[in-house]
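Mods, move this if it's the wrong board.
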Amino acid sequence: MKICFFADSESIHTVRWCNHFKQLGHEVHLISFKSAEVPGIPTHFVDTSNISVKGGNWKVLFKYRKVKKLIKSIDPDIVHALYATSYGITGALCGFKPYIITALGTDLLISPQSSKVYRFLLKYAFSKAQFVTVMSDQMKIEAEKLNVPESKIMVLPFGIDPKLFNANQRKLDDSKFVVTSTRNFETVYNIPHLLKAIAKVKNEIPNLQLNLIGAGSLKSEIESLVNELGINDIVTFFGKIPQVEIVSVLNQSNVFVSVSLSDGNNISLNEAMACETFCIATDIPANTQWIKHEENGFLVPIDDVEALANYLLVSAKNYDELQQKSLPLSRKLLQEKGIWELNMQRMEDQYKRLVN
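Not the wrong board. Structure tokens:
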């Protein structure tokens, strides 16, 4: 089967999808608005100037003729757009069948709510797709509100590779209490919430350390806030690092924190669960499908710094007891719906059904 992905070539999700289906023996091509190439994958670049993570990329729609021409030259069996707005809408304009759209989060949970134009365009895009995948039950509900029939939707969390993300090398330093975030420095991930909570408990948790793994447009603002809060002596900025290094950091961390305002499916949370790091996350649908409050983690209201600070203190004081209770449920949930290979098998079956 010849599969053409239409997606951000800089995204780790795109790289994973392309490499996975190539390894299964399919011929894989990638069309992207980003110039980065995925090694070993024929990558076709469509220049649109800058693509902003904050949105407002509607000008890319005018590139649909170039995309359509590339699709024709590739002559794939199926075209699959990852991200429903910029890529999904542009791909829909090309008219290729069979066509799949995967919504990742903000593109379905925020964009159509904030803009009537996006809502109209997404309805159009989904109407042209033969199949739609979403990351959570909440996203499925939002897709149905945009007139996508239930028969055309599959809830498909990406999941983790347990051969990479696991606790085999887990080793904590008893003299430290390490908190880690692997979310990028963008508004939606709300890193200042975490920093303010850390500042509140800095003097109450002995040898507290905070690891920030990620990058983004707000890096300088976050660095300034770290200095302003007087926590620069306990914060380490890792930048973007390979997944194998993320595993190493998580395996040396007591707690993982994600305080994002919105998520499709929090893959970072899945990765932390697989490394058996105790998890605290915002009380949003993307997280409640993985965390049962006070059973295998804590759920914190959005922007509630006091609550997050309290949960950090509780975690530090009762860590072993919390871990003993949380690990069996986290392992069960991951096995049921969080394994990458099993979820991608479902996707491959859907490809074959649509092509045949």
